[in-house]
Write a structure and sequence with these properties.
Rossmann fold; 3 domains; six-stranded parallel beta sheet; 10 helices; globular; zymogen; S53_propep; TPP1 peptidase; Peptidase_S8/S53_dom_sf; Sedolisin_dom
Length: 392
């Protein structure tokens, strides 16, 4: 269904280019889950030292492969690829299907389990019977999605998990500051209080000036999806105003993706400024995934980046989510597999649960029900709830 706020603007022209993401069926996911459990469960003998229980080899009949894991090491991206890459039959079947329909503008990722393709809407509708591509607008944003379910040929069912860029609308930013919420509700008092500054946050969590990054391999990142951007100049000014009590950095080391000029976004600025205030003096990246194409799914684009970059920060903080009941089981299971791939590489991914904590869904019958957010509900990420201070 179309989320509130999005207006239908008609069907796209047959020649309009759409961008679709084909999630190819992976191998070795059961083994991957076992390895992730071994290094993530505090009750496991391997917890904390990254020691895998036994050498791991690539699935299938291939010979002469080196062990995927050595004692004391997480998997490299290439070792993850050797474990989960689709079977030759899956790769051949999907590529042949696409080429038979004239689809050639495609690229894959290191792990070979995603294909992203550009193709005319008319071709996409022939590939995926039942699909119809329509444009939807919300303010200045424009998206192309299919309001109808799609199908794939029976011979493709065992080779594809899902096709991205079809149905899902962008999720919501899960962290909303109290000051913003009060302002939007019209309840801001005349006597403005700065609220939870970095100094307040660090004091409440018993962080002293010594609690800063000291090792050169410390690294962290935040991901942004909803056409929200930060400005380096704003970050430097913020740190000048609020960073005097701790050693800090004033610049993001790397931006992955587009970072247009223009007005800075409130949520994007908050994410960057506060990760660099609590994770102070630590090398920080920003993944900017606004979605350059109308049919692109920014969250999927971020997952593809993680499957295509050998060197990424160790910790990722993401304030983003969808209602779990709005997503298909196949989609969530595949996203969980992507988080397992990250965990096997030693990455920690933090998702915000939202300031409201455990969400209670209000329904007309009066029987309210729990409505979890995904990916915060994934067992392969760390979910962080909001903290409310009565007197900051």
């Amino acid at each position: 269904s179309v989320p509130p706020g999005w207006a239908h603007a008609g069907r796209v022209d047959p020649g309009h280019t759409v961008q679709l993401t084909f999630a190819l069926r992976q191998r070795g996911t059961a083994r991957l889950a076992h390895l992730v459990e071994a290094v993530s469960d505090p009750q496991s003998p391997q917890y904390g030292n990254s020691h895998m229980p036994e050498p791991l080899r690539s699935p299938g009949p291939a010979r002469g492969l080196s062990p995927l894991c050595l004692p004391g090491q997480y998997l490299s991206l290439e070792q993850v690829r050797d474990l989960v890459q689709p079977s030759p039959a899956t790769l051949m079947t999907v590529l042949t299907w696409l080429r038979d329909h004239g689809v050639e503008d495609c690229w894959s990722v290191t792990t070979l389990d995603f294909l992203e393709c550009h193709l005319p809407a008319s071709t996409a509708e022939r590939l995926l019977p039942g699909a119809e591509f329509h444009r939807y607008v919300k303010g200045q944003r424009s998206l192309v999605r299919s309001p109808l379910p799609y199908a794939v040929p029976v011979e493709l069912v065992e080779h594809l998990d899902f096709v991205g860029g079809m149905h899902r609308f962008p999720g919501e930013h899960m962290a909303v500051s109290r000051a913003k919420a009060e302002k939007e509700s019209g309840s801001v008092r005349a006597s403005f209080h700065l609220g939870v500054t970095p100094a307040v946050l660090r004091q409440r969590y018993n962080m002293t000036g010594d609690h800063v990054g000291l090792l050169p391999n410390n690294s962290q990142a935040c991901a942004q999806f909803l056409e929200q951007y930060f400005h380096q100049a704003d970050l430097a000014e913020f740190m000048q105003l609020f960073g005097s009590s701790f050693t800090h950095r004033t610049q993001v080391d790397r931006v992955v993706g587009q970072q247009p000029r223009g007005k800075a976004g409130l949520e994007a600025s908050l994410d960057v400024e506060y990760i660099m205030s609590t994770g102070a003096n630590i090398s920080t990246w920003v993944f900017s995934n606004a979605g350059r194409h109308e049919s692109q799914e920014p969250f999927l684009s971020w997952l593809l980046l993680l499957s295509n970059m050998s060197a990424v920060p160790w910790v990722h903080s993401v304030s983003y989510g969808d209602d779990e009941d709005s997503l298909s089981l196949a989609y969530m299971e595949r996203v969980n597999a992507e988080f397992m791939k990250a965990a096997a590489r030693g990455l920690t991914i933090l998702f915000a649960s939202g300031d409201d904590g455990a969400g209670c869904r209000r329904v007309h019958s009066g029987n309210h029900t729990f409505r979890p957010s995904f990916p915060a509900s994934s067992p392969y990420v760390t979910t962080v709830g909001g903290t409310s201070f009565k007197n900051p």
